[in-house]
Structure formats: structure tokens, C-alpha cells
Amino acid sequence: MQGSLRIDLEARSVTLAEGDLFVVPKGALHNPSAPDGCLVMLIENKSTRHTGDFVGKWTRSLEEQLRPVQCGDNRQGR
């Protein structure tokens, strides 16, 4: 990881720095944020839907989630 990442959970918040690791409990609602941007590695099952059962503006299909990503690809502006 590069940079700093804050993960807000229902009961607490966790701030991660370079070299840190955190496991979000299965089924836990969480909201990651990085106002200054950051690079992270996510380890999860291929079938994990990134917005769970919620469908909204940021929801992407599993096919979109599995597409190859170029370094520096920022899809937030869609």
C-alpha cells in the first residue's frame, strides 16, 4: 500500500498506512476513503460484489470488476 486509507465501519474507523493490513469482517458495511489518493491491494473472491446487495451510482458488474486495469487508471470520473 502507498499513501493512507481510512475505512469507516459501523462501530469504528481504521486508518491504514504503508505496510498495514486489515481484514474487513465478512458482511460488514464499510466505506473506504483516501482524500489524497492511495494504492492498495485487495484480496477477495472473484465473486465478491463491491457494493454488496446495494445497487447505485458506483455499482459495477462482476465483468467490469474483473477487467484488466492499467496502473494509474482512475475510473471515478465516469
Structure description:
This protein has 78 residues and is mostly beta strands. The chain has one domain (1-72). It is built from one helix and five strands, in the order βββββα. The strands form two sheets. Strands 3-2-4 form a three-stranded antiparallel sheet, with no helix packed on it. A hairpin with a 3-residue loop joins strand 2 (5-9) and strand 3 (13-16). It starts with a strand and ends in a 13-residue tail after the last helix.
Question: What are the salient characteristics of this protein?
Answer:
78 residues, mainly beta, three-stranded antiparallel sheet, 1 helix, 5% helix
Major pleated sheet? 3 strands, antiparallel
Q: Strand order, main sheet: write it out.
A: 3-2-4
Strand content: 15-25%
Radius of gyration: 13 Å
Q: Percent range for helical residues?
A: under 10%
Summed up, what is this model?
The protein is mainly β and 78 residues long.
Secondary-structure map:
Elements: E1 2-3, E2 5-9, E3 13-16, E4 30-33, E5 38-39, H1 62-65
Antiparallel strand pairs: 1-5, 2-3, 2-4
